[in-house]
Write a structure and sequence with these properties.
With about 280 residues, this protein is of the alpha/beta class. The protein contains eight helices and eight strands. The radius of gyration is 18 Å and the shape is globular. This is Putative glycosyl transferase.
Length: about 280
């Protein structure tokens, strides 16, 4: 099994070390995996950590960027690969405020993607409330919903209000998942989903073989919808595999960014997505 993993860092070097160490531990438990990891660093603050000097069991490279954004940093890392992108069984992008489980690669190696599966949605379990962040989006948003979200992002007050509603919904979902787990049921089942959570995305080989791409030009936000549209346009599906486990440490990078910056960036992303995929 051949894998490329691109963690993207923004002023969270301690988190990056913790994440890379967890990957190293998981890698040591799984034989037969060829793993290339490229830390794509958008940080604007200097670090006392010399990543180039760190030793890992996998093939590791450090890539310093200007602050170009999440998917642009991912795409830049992929552009440095010396082998074709579709030669990898899985290509992954993630934040660094995460920790992979010790059996992460063992679980992933046992996954057999369905014939039309372009993306694996792992179990991304929140340290805060225990919920699985996947599925992220169950149904394709309507044009009306996209325009509404663009309007919400036009005002920091509206954005703050909507964010409070989202957090309340997340608490309800966490409570529901805990109740199901206590009863011994399967959390969430395996319903079809439109979009997977963007903090850890696992692309299958098929995603690139069918012509889908990751050249999302926006600085931040909206990645889930962009990828979902790539899947939709190329007739591919998402497979949710909660046993491929990741622990989420809750937005260590974006929490460092002020709301006055986040809000307009959200709006710009909605404007881009509307113009490209929801044009009426």
């Amino acid at each position: 099994m051949k894998i490329c993993l691109v963690p993207v860092c923004y002023n969270a070097h301690d988190d990056a070390v913790r994440f890379l160490d967890s990957v190293n531990t998981a890698f040591s438990f799984c034989l037969g995996v060829e793993l290339e990891v490229i830390l794509s660093d958008n940080s604007t603050l200097s670090s006392v950590i010399t990543f180039d000097a760190r030793n890992y069991s996998y093939n590791f490279r450090y890539l310093q960027n200007s602050n170009i954004g999440y998917f642009p940093a991912f795409a830049r890392a992929l552009s440095t690969l010396t082998e074709p992108i579709d030669s990898y069984d899985f290509v992954m992008v993630c934040n660094v405020d995460l920790v992979v489980s010790k059996d992460f690669f063992i679980a992933l190696s046992s996954v057999s993607p369905g014939k039309d599966v372009g993306l694996i949605a792992p179990g991304i379990f929140s340290d805060k409330d225990g919920r699985d962040l996947n599925p992220k989006i169950m149904r394709r948003p309507s044009l009306r919903k996209m325009k509404f979200m663009r309007m919400v992002c036009s005002s920091t007050a509206l954005f703050r209000w909507y964010s409070m509603l989202v957090r309340a919904r997340e608490r309800t979902r966490a409570c529901t998942q805990r109740k199901i787990a206590k009863k011994g049921g399967a959390i969430g089942g395996q319903p079809a989903m439109y979009g997977a959570h963007g903090s850890f995305i696992i692309f299958t080989q098929l995603y690139f073989k069918r012509g889908a791409h990751v050249l999302y030009p926006r600085f931040l936000f909206g990645e889930e919808v962009f990828v979902a549209e790539q899947l939709r346009l190329n007739n591919m599906l998402i497979q949710h595999v909660p046993d491929v486990r990741v622990s989420d440490k809750e937005h260590a990078s974006t929490s460092k960014i002020k709301l006055k910056f986040i809000c307009p960036e959200h709006r710009k992303s909605y404007e881009y997505l509307l113009s490209k995929f929801f044009d009426d």
